[in-house]
Amino acid sequence: MSIRPALLSLFLLAVAVFAVRELTPPAPAAPGGRGTSSLASSAPPAAGRPGVQAVTASGVPCTLTELGEESIHTGDLVLVNNWTLYHFPEEQPLESIYEGKTSSYYVRDREVYLAPHALEALNALMDAFQAQGGSKTVNVVAGYRTEAFQRHLFDQSAARSGQAHAEKFVAQPGGSEHHTGLVVDFSILHADGTSEEYRGQGEYAWLNENCHRYGWTVRYGAEKEALTGIADEPWHFRYTGVPHATAMAVEGLCLEEYTAYLKNYPFDGPHLLVECADGKYEIWYCPGTAAYLPDSGGYTVSGNNVDGLIVTCKTE
Ligand SMILES: [Zn+2]
């Protein structure tokens, strides 16, 4: 059911032009609309009950499937911030970056963890960085964090620099994206052993500008601080998957905006189409805990951590 292995195998191929487009003229509330509609929308399916079959706008047969309350809080698109706390699952699949990484970057020590599929995407990003001439100086200094460790970081920052500083730069316990296992922080480690803050400038600008092609998003930009609640952090990368990271990059949306934007694309309306180097993706939103899932597989589903599910289906 996962589309990621296919994606990752294509990461090293030449990159095509990325574009986001929509099936039909966007819903009025859609920000940054740059739709160049070239496909027609089929008749919308009737709203249904779990088990009811329908077809997507481009004709993919789907069945409405109840996925349970936990599904809203699980997946690559979960929104986590100081107002939307992470729901810690009973079991969280994690892998030591040290154990699973390629040789194109460093990691602080053996105790930095990521979700296995995010680690695979990190390897693809860093291998591509090196292949286009990047130096081996990126050091992953943070990955998954427990709630207790985030509390420690917040209290430490508040004690050292004051409560206001901590609130501006450090997420609340439970409010850190690092809890998801889908996030890394970079630093720079020079050959002489000295280190430096990662700013995403110079040769590293390539990473910040191209990370969406590998499923990563620079999560905190200065211009989005009012929405994210976190100041500019060019070193903090969040994995959301290639089509979503691409859509956010093209439309200039942070994850707070993007999860709201996706509600313009319910199953029974026009869907969001995202064209990536490896193919086209069709994306729709289902409120609640039941989602229209393609009968043929080839999709991923993620909660938004608030009130619904996003289905992503590769169509070509
Ligand atoms: Zn971070």
What does this structure look like?
- The chain has 316 residues and is an alpha+beta fold.
- The chain has two domains: 1-77 and 242-316, Phosphorylase Kinase, domain 1 (2-Layer Sandwich), CATH 3.30.200; 80-239, Muramoyl-pentapeptide Carboxypeptidase, domain 2 (2-Layer Sandwich).
- It has nine helices and 16 strands.
- The strands form four sheets. Strands 5, 7, 8, 9, 10 and 11 form a six-stranded mixed sheet that branches. It has a five-stranded antiparallel sheet with strand order 1-12-13-16-15, covered by helices on one side.
- A hairpin with a 5-residue loop joins strand 2 (53-55) and strand 3 (61-66).
- Helix 4 (147-161) packs across helix 5 (163-169).
- The longest helix is centred in the middle third of the chain and has 16 residues, at 116-131.
- It is globular and about 60 Å long.
- The two termini are 15 Å apart.
- The structure holds zinc ion.
- Zinc ion (ZN) is lined by residues 142, 178, 183, 185, 236.
